[in-house]
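Re-run with default settings, no changes from the original entry. Doing this only to confirm the output is reproducible before filing.
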Amino acid sequence: MRRTTLTRRTFLRTVGSAAAGAAALGALGRSAGAAEADKPNVIIIYADDQGYGDLSCYGAQKIKTPHIDRMAAEGMKFTDFYVTAPVCSPTRSSLMTGCYPKRVGMHRHVLFPHSTRGLNPSEITIAELLKKQGYATACIGKWHLGHQKQFLPTSQGFDSYFGIPFSNDMSLPANMTFAKDVRLDAGLEVEKLKAGLKARNKVPLMRNEQVIDYPVVQSTLTERYTEEAVAFVTANKDGPFFLYLPHTMPHYPLHVSARFKGKSAGGLFGDVIECMDWSCGRIFEALRRLGIEKKTIVVYTSDNGPAAGSAGPLRGKKGSTWEGGMREPCIMWGPGRIPAGTVCSELATIMDLLPTFAGLAGTKAPTDRVIDGRDIWPLMSGRPGAKSPHDAFFYYSARGNLEAVRQGDWKYRKSTRKARRKKGDKTSPPKPKGELYNLKEDIGEKTDLIEKHPDIARRLAALMAKFDTDLEKTSRPAGQA
């Protein structure tokens, strides 16, 4: 299935090669220096609301993404890569924890400026795991897992944070902490802002736990994030480092700087995507200039389906549990580690990044709690015959309701209608309600096969019910401010 204008270095943490080489990995019987040399730098680039069909290497006709296309040509493109919800906050909790959102209490839609919930600090994040292995860690971009201090990246394993705390269509929360040199729009007073002045689509830019710019000029965000990212990579070139780069775009409202505006045949949306592609190019350029490309693995994917972009051949968009809402473009790149020019059609998920990179860093996923993600290094490394480690994948809605399941090529979507037997028939199993699709033959979910295969539908319906019941028994609460 596999065919095989801020100071950029402020608050950046430098990890020297001598300190990196001092970490021991005695359990593997290797020297400390060799163990550190084997630990790859990790960069995860996370788009916001980018669809399956919004990259030219996934079929986009009017949007040009040469740098991401090169990444695919030099790495592995996944065709069946899933996030765990069709909206922002839940999927980000899965990336951080390796769990379905409902497992960690982050399944009830997205967080807003008035929200008091956040990712529980008692959860063990991918950043915390890697930091314990000697990694310098940075989050640059949109966080959206809680804006109170105890939920921010700097409380979740990241040495530094630069970005906006939630989506770019939101407003300033009350009681934010402002830096002394905060940059404000003319006429806006800090006292009024602290009192909770609301202005939709005007969001704060933060460094660590303080607001440094309000309202941030959104047309500059992709480029400012990129500058910060390149500075972090440069400062930590001796590694190992973990860079999490969750872009604000292409979430609405769309913004792009003047030098990219009007350049794409795909309109403003295309301009935004092509600016993000430029950003990827700048990061790859830095890796090559520093001579660390063979020490680094880069993942590019999106948090959910498109709001206004394209899901390509998939049905549905953001907010739905159709494939278009939760199947995402995903490219993994790592010269010498990930085979070039390959395509993986095995099922993989955003939850798998935590256990996979934990293993590559010389540790493992937490064993004191249930983790849903699985190590997919056999897939990423192109191991012959490697299969998905998931027996099934479960599609939870934006509100945390289990609506569908995929097992192999079959996807069953449940119905709220009660199953009924034919009139006068008291012996045969009731006719299942819902829909059944063969995703291998029908990627667009156009042909419902439930009438032909009611037995498969009943089996998958039972599998769904059991999984959701078991998950609830081992679920953990979100954090509460």
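The radius of gyration is 22 Å. The first strand starts at residue 41 and ends at 47.
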